[in-house]
Design a protein that fits this description.
212 residues, TIM Barrel, 23% strand, binds zinc ion
């Protein structure tokens, strides 16, 4: 299974509509998570348009006070501006997975070392819109044994699928166990310009050999 876990639609600050995202992703991927900022209507609309052979994970990128948190597999919105702890708790209460988005991003609201303290289901260590990290999220997650995922953080169609996760079986289990291969090949050049491309490609390779 090849999924993209971080996409914005026209329901928040993304350009494409949910329908356009599905049309684009349908021929390239097996599934996507639609994760608009503090908005779930686009994800629910995408869910309605999803076909039998394409998975839509309804979700949102929730603005907690301490940083952005992806809620994956929820059909209700968790309100913004709660503490990160409360946000994670509410996502779990709705049956969703709580994923720490771009936790060490230098420019954006980021959770930082809270990823070590709160019960996140996974950490987004590769994000297509992160141009620099305060710490290496891969190193932190490896040392702490935290499951890692990646997402493009797409805001335009051509970014959809530029960071993917590949896995076998059920997406929830794969993410929670960290049994995914993160692939950022499509934007490797762009990442390489900011000095972290080598790390990202290594994740992909070692995961393919080891944990698969
Ligand atoms: Zn974000
Ligand atoms: Zn985002």
């Amino acid at each position: 299974m090849l999924f993209e876990l971080h996409v914005h639609s026209s329901y928040s600050d993304g350009k494409p509509t949910p329908k356009e995202i599905l049309e684009y992703a349908g021929s390239r991927l097996d599934g996507i998570a639609l994760t608009d900022h503090d908005e779930i209507a686009g994800a629910l609309e995408a869910l309605e348009h999803a076909g039998d052979d394409f998975t839509v994970i309804p979700g949102a990128e929730v603005s907690s006070v301490e940083g952005h948190i992806l809620a994956l597999g929820v059909t209700e919105l968790v309100p913004r501006d709660l503490s990160a702890a409360e946000t994670v708790d509410r996502i779990h209460g709705l049956g969703g997975l709580a994923v720490a988005a771009h936790p060490y991003d230098v420019r954006r609201a980021a959770l930082g070392d809270l990823i070590l303290k709160l019960p996140f289901d996974a950490v987004e260590v590769v994000n297509g819109h992160t141009f620099g990290n305060k710490k290496d999220p891969v190193k932190v997650c490896r040392e702490a044994g935290l499951p890692m995922v990646g997402g493009s953080d797409a805001h335009i169609l051509s970014e959809v699928g530029s960071v993917t996760v590949e896995f076998d079986g059920d997406w929830r289990n794969a993410i929670k166990k960290g049994n995914v291969t993160i692939d950022s090949r499509n934007i490797a050049h762009r990442i390489f310009n900011f000095g972290v491309g080598a790390v990202h490609r290594r994740i992909s390779r070692s995961r393919k050999k080891g944990d698969h």
